[in-house]
Amino acid sequence: MSESQPVQLTAINGTRFSRPAPGRDGSLDTLETALASVPAYQSWRKLDPGPGTDIDHRYSRLPALAKGTMRALGVRAFVPSDQDFDAGMASGAIEYVQTSGSTDEQVTNLWCQEWWNASERASWRLHSRAAQTLTGAQPEAILTSPLCAGMPCETGYLPFEARRLGRFLFLNEKIDPTEWTPEHMDRMVDELNRFRPQSLEANPSFLARLSQHIARARRKVVQPRMIILTYEYPSLLHYRFIREVFSAPLASSYGSTECGYVFMECEAGRLHQNTAFCRVDFQPFTAAHGGPWVGRILVTTFNNPWYFVVRFDIGDLVRLEPQGACPCGRSEGLTLAAIEGRVKNVTLTPEGKAVTQRQVDDAISQVMGIEQYEVRQIGRNQYEASIALAPSCAPSACEKQAREALESVYGGGAKVSVAIARALSPELPGKYRLVKPLLPVDPDSLFERGPVSLKADPRGPGCP
Ligand SMILES: [Zn+2]
Question: Model's pTM, two decimal places?
Answer without folding.
Answer: 0.91
